Task: structure prediction
Amino acid sequence: MSDTPSATAELKLPKDLAAEKGMVNVQIDGVWRQFTKGTRIIEACRSVGSIVPHYCYHPKLTAPGNCRMCLVQTGMPPRPAPGQEPQRDENGYEPIGWMPRPVIACANTVAENMGIRTSGELVEKCREGVMEFLLINHPLDCPICDQAGECRLQEHSVGHGRGVSRFIDMKVKKPKNVDIGPRIRLDDERCIMCSRCIRFMDEVAGDPVLGFTQRGTHTTLTVHPGRLLDSNYSLNTADICPVGALTSNDFRFQMRVWFLKETPSIDVNCGTGTNITIWTRGNKIHRITPRQNDEVNSCWMPDSHRLNFHYIDGENRLSQPLAKNASGLHEPTTWSAALASAASAIKSFAPDQIAVIASGRMTNEELFLTRALAKNIGTQHLTIVPRTGEADHLLIAADRNPNTTGAKLVWENSAPSSKLDSIRSAVGSGDIKALIVLGEDLVTDAGFSSEDLSKLGLLVQLHTLANPTASRAHFVLPTAAFAEKRGSMVNLSGRLQRLNRAVEPTGQCRDDWEAIRDLICAITGDKHEIHHIEDVFKSIAENIPAFQNLTLSKIGHQGTQITETGHKITLLENERARKAAGLVNG
Amino acid sequence: MAVVKLQRPQLKLGEKIYFGALVKGFILTLGHAIRSLRGKSVGAKDLESSGLGVTMQFPEQRWDSHLPDYYRGAPALVTDEQGRERCVSCQLCEFICPPKAIRITPGEIPSDDPWAKVEKRPKEFEIDMIRCIYCGMCEEVCPEQAIYLRKDYLITGLKRADMLHDKKKLYEIGGVRTGLVNKWNELK
Result:
């Protein structure tokens, strides 16, 4: 570097300045900008706010460039004659020689001194032509199509279409309403042959069952003979389908999407903590879709987790506090009465005879209050119930508790589920006579036998659903399901993420943290001073080092990394490998 | 904005005491009253007067035959010549309805139905006639020519539930409508 920077700057051309940073100068719609070498044109345009319409391109998938919707006009400086110095304007850029032929933005990369036009007569004409071709054989059955309202074909038809059809021949007939898998329905007439689903099943799900048969206008999307689209990731194909060719059987004809309200939240079915959007109308959840988070789940989520929400308004849902009467039958009661009698029953036992069994499905706030509950009672018997399954080597983790890491952090205990076995044997031997069970079903998930539970002098359960443990409980307190409450959880890789309330709790259900707070107050006889969930989080932030300086709102929709556990999410590893190999943009 | 100053008109003495105007008005009214009693009011014949002025005695007399074609009465669902229910429950009317009077529960047409090709129809279709403001937006927005505002205007009930038109009632009011675009036939 010289001491006189102005002198050297005059010598340095924009292309050299950019090259030092591994970047190139590109003019997009008349404005010169710098992009990293190798950026696709479509991503470059997107990053500066000029959205290029497209169907087949998806940042997480390879770009075959087969929909032709993303045509843009480009230009490069004309090649100088031998011995001729290239012309430059006052800023050091060479003049752009615009090419008369458009190129696709999704599969081409930016180059030095390139010019890109995302509008203009040529580009508009191309888009109009592509739209007309795509609509030739489209059935235009928007009134019955589930995709209507979030359909790219509808959107681009409004933006770039002609409005009327010039096509007078018969449309090509293709299979409709095809059952290609247990969760997906295919309508081939609506398909625009973008091949996103084919590429997803091949590249991300690793189960290449979809493909095209026939040629030309007769090209048909089909599933391999003898196979079904039954992968646990099949519903992602319906998400990425830009039209209504692939639709979800579960959401089929349930509700038009324009009525639905979106709430960002997280999935609670395993330790990955997949980011989700909950789609609701009124107090009913209609569907759940993945939300992009490149540190957790990319753009995808497994079907088994996505469809696990129907229990929230199902038949087994508890909706009012229950207390067992003298003849052993559950009777509806009020919250205050149930809490008061539960508290007095708890106080009739020695602290050592009481155990608190919490759940790894509880939020950090609830776990924090649970620890306070155990402390107030004076018992050391505090545990969560471990829940393991098989990892699927993509997104589903072996640990099916969404907040095991949170339990470790909030309880400051590296093995929060270690005491379960000792509690179980102590219940069997009669040393523990009272159990407070929060959000767990001991019979089904924790290996307790019904005889064990019938020996207990007191069983208090907080749960969302009626279950075998609840039927033996003396007090059953209904609580909110994951979509009905706010809170935070820490996933297996140490990312603190937020749950948001999408619907109001059913009936008299209460937020778990409120129920635990009220139980503590009923036991101690104090008046509570915690009014909001933010207050609970504030005390966590004050007491637990990992949560320092955080608030619920600071976590953000994409979560905050608060600890490093070394846990790797296989799907993300695969995606990063594909990105490093230059196959996808990411 | 320019300010324009207006000059009040200069009134003459007769105008100032306005008694003459009162008398004039009284005579005019009296003339109408006499004509009304004699059954000779202007337009009495065209408006099917009951004999006193131009007033029609509702409910003994009805103006049904005078309703114009564009009259907006109760919204109703129609079937076509082939007996197919036109509505495919796209829920656009539910979306557009300003007072949120419409509530549709969509449903699937079973595969053994002759119209299985259409795939979708309303499982339940409710219009709350207490809420309905007869604006006709539902008719205008319908892409299937399925909902029309009919000439029924006497929508009464003793309970709120009576005022809730369900699917059966709506098809009863709507009846069959001919000459509509047949977009779900085999040729498309």
User: Anything to note?
Assistant: The interface with chain A takes residues 88-92, 94-95, 106-108, 111, 117-120, 143-144, 187-188 of chain B (CB under 8 Å). The helical segments of chain B are 13-17, 19-37, 92-96, 137-141, 167-174. Strands of chain B lie at 75-77, 102-108, 120-128, 147-149, 164-165.
